[in-house]
Amino acid sequence: MKPAGALLLLCAALLLISGGDCKICSSVKHDVTLFIKGTPDEYVQQVAQYRNETIILENARSLKECVDAKFTEDDRTNAINVLNKIYSSPLC
Fold it and tell me: Quick one: signal sequence residues (predicted)?
């Protein structure tokens, strides 16, 4: 996995385990899953629910397209497996 992908997973893990609030875990789970496995359009629509500003949406699309270009299918599977372990934690 690329360093950027590892950093993304680390940040997601820290966010998920820091609060222990199941409400944020379910929201973050959906967002991160779309970021890893969804289409750019699906991810941008999700981001738009939080911040519907042109520059934010353009950056979200650019970041998603970058991830899609860099992640292999194995990277995606590994990322989802790590996240599933985090989601199954009693802290989440």
Answer: 1-22
